[in-house]
Amino acid sequence: MTTTTLDTTATRLPRLDWPFLIAAILGTGLLVALVALDGHPASAALVILGFALGVAFLKAEFSFTAAWRRFLVNGEAGGLLAALLLIAVAALVIVPVAALVPRFGGAIAPIGPSLVIGAFVFGIGMQLANGCGSGTLYTAGGGSGRMLIALALFIVGSFIGSLHLPAFLALGGVDPILASTYFGPWGGLAVTLASIATVALVIALVARARRADLMPRPLIVIGAIAIGALSIGVFLAGRHPWSVTFGFTVWGAKLAALAGVDFSGAEFWQWPGPKRALAQSILSDTSSLTDLGMILGAMAAAAASKPFARTYWPPARSLFAAALGGLLMGWGARIGFGCNIGAFVGGVASGSLHGWVWFAAALAGCAIGIRLRPLFGLSRE
Amino acid sequence: MRVVYALVLIAALAGVIADHLLSPASARAVSPGDFPGACAPCGAPCPSAQKK
After folding, report:
1. Quick one: average pLDDT of B7-25?
2. Contact with chain A for residue B3, Cβ under 8 A
């Protein structure tokens, strides 16, 4: 009787969730209109590209977090190899254009304790939250209440990290190391692609030694190519590689200021870029534009395929893991110069060595995060 | 959960619009990494510049 009732209710539910689908499209249209009215077509393009990224991530179910966990636990390499394919696609344009075209630049960062510590903490957080920077955006946008909590704490952690970053920078480090600086635009691209191929080979050898699956699913391959192409679009519209987490830092700082928190003496917010971002509209910040577009794109894609956010809240322990994971990711991303997108994808696709250092440290953090997952009722796999 | 989502969406969009209308906007969207002296996407300075 109960089953029949549930089945009947299920068949009555609309396949298209019109209220949320319309809200997502109208919200995107509103953001595009606001920046277009100010005469900023590139900003409008960033919102639309973010929307497309949200759709692509959700439809391809592209997940850095699950791919890294499957590799570390079972040796499965498919997801990780797909991520490297994404980076290789993006690098084809980013490395030469950043080196040859004035006013374009790659994602660079200093290499030192701050990068390593931040990426390591981020890696722990991404396994507890079950999503990275992009993953948090598209799953929160896609109707996961759990990831909505992770996103809120990601924003809090990112703001806290901004207050701590100068102290971690004082620990030392070396200036960014960019392949194109040493080998020129095309030599730099060749070195970057060779480094991606080498890491892919190592990953494949590990998978083979562990007798695990090696090939990514076709949908993931299509997703990787689509996301790589869209990240090129973001680079061309924004003149620097796609990044996610600085937007969260600005949102956190604006909310903190609204709540009366005084951080006027904080060194981070005296640097020209952050100072300007705090003073101006968040729609003047490239990462905020793509972040907002991505949330709305994932919401539209989710609402277009099934009833939106009609699930129950998960157990309290799982919610606590999401909150803690979000907080660690936010703090780690700010200390470590970004997340999977800004530091790993953007860094490696720019030919910057810090991208690989970030990857190694975050992967080590993931190994710890995976061990902690059972404490919160989460599977290790 | 749908109610929570609806409220968050309305609050977020209202916040973005209010912030945009009440804040100045630059000529084009920028990243902190675009500013002179920036050594990272967040605008952090280079270690070599900090030592000086």
Report:
1. 94
2. no
Res A5: pLDDT? 45
pLDDT value, residue A11? 52
pLDDT-flagged residues of chain A (< 50): 1-10
Rounded to an integer, what is the distance from CA A375 to the centroid of its chain? 25
Question: Do B17 and A34 lie within an 8 Å CB cutoff?
Answer: yes
In a domain, A3, yes or no: no
**C-alpha dist (Å) from residue A235 to A104, A251, A355, B43:** 8, 22, 17, 17
Q: What share of chain A in percent tops pLDDT 90?
A: 92
Shortest alpha-carbon distance between residue A103 and chain B (Å): 8
Domain total of chain B: 1
DSSP B22-34: HS---SS-B-GGG
Domain-located, residue A6? no
Residue B51: pLDDT band (50, 70, 90) is low
Structural domain harbouring A337: 16-376
With respect to residue A317, please indicate whether it lies within any of the assigned structural domains.
Answer: yes
Of B17, B33, B42, the CB nearest to A105: B33
Looking at CA atoms only, how far is residue B48 from chain A in angstroms? Answer: 7
Burial class of residue A204 in the structure, from the number of CB atoms within 10 Å of its CB (0-12 exposed, 13-18 middle, 19+ buried): middle
Q: Is the pLDDT of residue B27 over 90?
A: no
| Distance between A75 CA and the closest CA of chain B, angstroms | 32
pLDDT at position A6 is 46
Domain that holds residue B19: 2-51
Give the Cα separation of A359 and A357 in Å (integer). 5
